[in-house]
């Protein structure tokens, strides 16, 4: 299973969690890793959680599977307009 790096791509409104471009965290299996001193917005996280398990297995899916088209995700808060980039990374890199 791959590690997923979730990075704040842009903030085009008011983010109540205080995210800034470049903030990130990792999902590996059922483990959530947040760089020291940072935090996670539970509302953004809960909206992304259904995608993580299948996103981590995307290499095994058919070429036309919808999850292969997923490269970013939006926060559900319409005032925040936070865009996250989702990417698979090797276990050795962070």
Task: Write a structural description.
- With 94 residues, the protein is an alpha+beta fold.
- It has one domain.
- It is built from two helices and five strands; from the N terminus they run E-E-E-H-H-E-E.
- It has helices at 42-48, 52-56; strands spanning 3-11, 24-28, 31-33, 72-74, 82-89.
- Strands 3-2-1-5-4 form a five-stranded antiparallel sheet.
- Strand 2 and strand 3 form a beta hairpin.
- The longest helix is centred in the middle third of the chain and has 7 residues, at 42-48.
- It is globular, with a radius of gyration of 13 Å.
- It starts with a strand and ends in a 5-residue tail after the last strand.
Write the layout of secondary structure elements.
Layout: E1 3-11, E2 24-28, E3 31-33, H1 42-48, H2 52-56, E4 72-74, E5 82-89
Antiparallel strand pairs: 1-2, 1-5, 2-3, 4-5
Shape: globular
Q: What class do helices, strands and sheet pairing give?
A: alpha+beta
Number of helical elements? 2
Helix content: 10-25%
Which stretches are low in confidence, meaning pLDDT under 50 for 5 or more residues running?
none
Order of helices and strands: EEEHHEE
Alpha carbon gap, first and last residue: 15 Å
The profile of the biggest β sheet is: 5 strands, antiparallel
How do the strands of the widest beta sheet line up side by side? 3-2-1-5-4
Q: Please, what is the average pLDDT?
A: 86
* Whole-number total of structural domains: 1
Over the alpha carbons, how many angstroms does the gyration radius reach? Answer: 13 Å
Task: Please count the beta strands (DSSP E, at least 2 residues each).
Answer: 5
Strand content: 25-35%
